[in-house]
C-alpha cells in the first residue's frame, strides 16, 4: 500500500476522536499536531496489512453549524434534545495494486472521500453516558486520475459514549455495512481483462457488506491529547464473498496517537 500523507491522518483523527467533552465551557476551536501509528488492512477482505507512522493533525471546532470533533467533521442542519441531522465527511487512503498479491496487475484503488446525510437519534443518556443510533449514508468519490462517483455506503450503528472513566473517554460502536453494486465493483470486481490464474472474472452486486465492532479511548492531559482505537471487521453475510479478491473474512485494525495542542480560541462555548 502506498503511504498517504493526507487521507490516513484525517481518518485517524476522526476515529480516535477529540478531547473529553463535559458539561462546561470549552474553547470554540483547538489546533494541535502529533504523530500516530496504525495497522490497517489494504482493504476490507484483504489478507495483507500495512503499518503506517504518520503525522496526525488535531482539529476541534465547536460551532453551532460546523463541527469537527469526536463524531467527525460535519455540518449540523437540525439539532434537538433527541434527534440531530447533519452532513458528515469521511476519507480512506489509496492502495497500490502492485503491493497487494490479490490485486497485482489490476488498477490501483484511489483515495476515497465520502460525504452525505447522517441522522443521530439519542436512545438514552445518563450521568456520564449516552447511547445513540446513527444512520449515515454517504456518496463515495474517488480522488485523482481515477476520480468520480464510486457508489453509496450506509453504516447504521449503535454508539455508546462513556464520558469520564477516571479521566478517560471511551466509545464503543457496533455497525452494519451496506454498499451498492458500483462501490463493490471498485473494490471486489475483476474484469475479464484483469482475470488471471487464481483470479477469475467476477462482477459483484450490491447489498450487505458485513459489519464491525469498534472501541476507542481518548484523554486530555494539560496540552496533550492521547487516543487509541481497536476495530474488528467481519465480512460475514457480505454479498461479494465469492470475489477472488476476498482473501480474509475477519481482521483487526489498531491505532494509537498523541498530539500537542498548541493553540486554542479565547472564545468559549457551552458543550454538553
Automatic annotation (TrEMBL):
Q: Does the keyword Acetylation apply?
A: no
Task: Extract the InterPro entries matched here.
Answer: MipA
- Top-rank taxon, per record: Bacteria
Q: What residue range is the signal peptide?
A: 1-23
From the Swiss-Prot or TrEMBL record, state where the protein is found. Answer: Cell outer membrane
Entry keywords, A to Z: Cell outer membrane, Membrane, Signal
Matching Pfam families: MipA (PF06629)
What is a single cellular component term in the Gene Ontology annotation? cell outer membrane
Family, as annotated: Belongs to the MipA/OmpV family.
For this entry, the protein name equals MipA/OmpV family protein
* Organism expressing this protein natively: Azohydromonas caseinilytica
Amino acid at each position: 500500500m502506498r503511504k498517504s500523507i493526507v487521507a490516513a491522518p484525517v481518518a485517524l483523527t476522526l476515529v480516535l476522536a477529540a478531547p473529553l467533552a463535559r458539561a462546561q465551557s470549552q474553547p470554540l476551536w483547538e489546533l494541535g499536531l502529533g504523530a500516530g501509528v496504525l495497522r490497517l488492512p489494504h482493504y476490507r477482505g484483504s489478507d495483507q496489512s500495512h503499518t503506517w507512522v504518520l503525522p496526525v493533525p488535531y482539529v476541534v471546532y465547536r460551532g453551532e453549524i460546523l463541527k469537527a470533533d469526536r463524531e467527525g467533521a460535519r455540518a449540523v442542519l437540525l439539532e434537538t434534545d433527541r434527534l440531530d441531522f447533519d452532513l458528515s465527511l469521511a476519507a480512506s487512503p489509496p492502495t497500490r495494486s502492485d503491493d497487494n498479491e490479490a490485486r497485482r496487475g489490476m488498477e490501483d484503488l484511489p483515495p476515497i472521500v465520502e460525504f452525505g446525510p447522517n441522522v443521530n437519534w439519542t436512545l438514552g443518556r445518563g450521568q456520564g453516558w449516552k447511547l445513540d443510533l446513527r444512520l449515515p449514508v454517504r456518496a463515495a468519490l474517488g480522488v485523482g486520475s481515477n476520480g468520480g462517483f464510486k457508489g453509496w455506503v450506509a453504516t447504521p450503528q449503535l454508539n455508546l459514549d462513556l464520558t469520564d472513566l477516571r479521566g478517560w473517554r471511551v466509545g464503543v460502536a457496533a455497525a452494519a455495512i451496506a454498499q451498492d453494486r458500483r462501490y463493490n465493483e471498485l473494490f471486489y470486481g475483476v474484469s475479464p481483462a484483469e482475470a488471471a490464474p487464481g483470479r477469475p472474472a467476477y462482477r459483484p452486486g450490491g447489498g450487505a457488506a458485513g459489519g464491525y465492532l469498534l472501541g476507542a479511548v481518548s484523554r486530555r492531559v494539560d496540552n496533550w491529547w492521547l487516543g487509541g482505537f481497536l476495530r474488528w471487521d467481519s465480512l460475514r453475510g457480505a454479498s461479494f464473498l465469492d470475489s477472488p479478491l476476498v482473501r480474509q473474512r475477519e481482521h483487526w485494525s489498531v491505532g494509537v496517537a498523541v498530539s500537542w495542542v498548541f493553540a486554542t480560541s479565547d472564545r468559549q462555548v457551552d458543550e454538553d
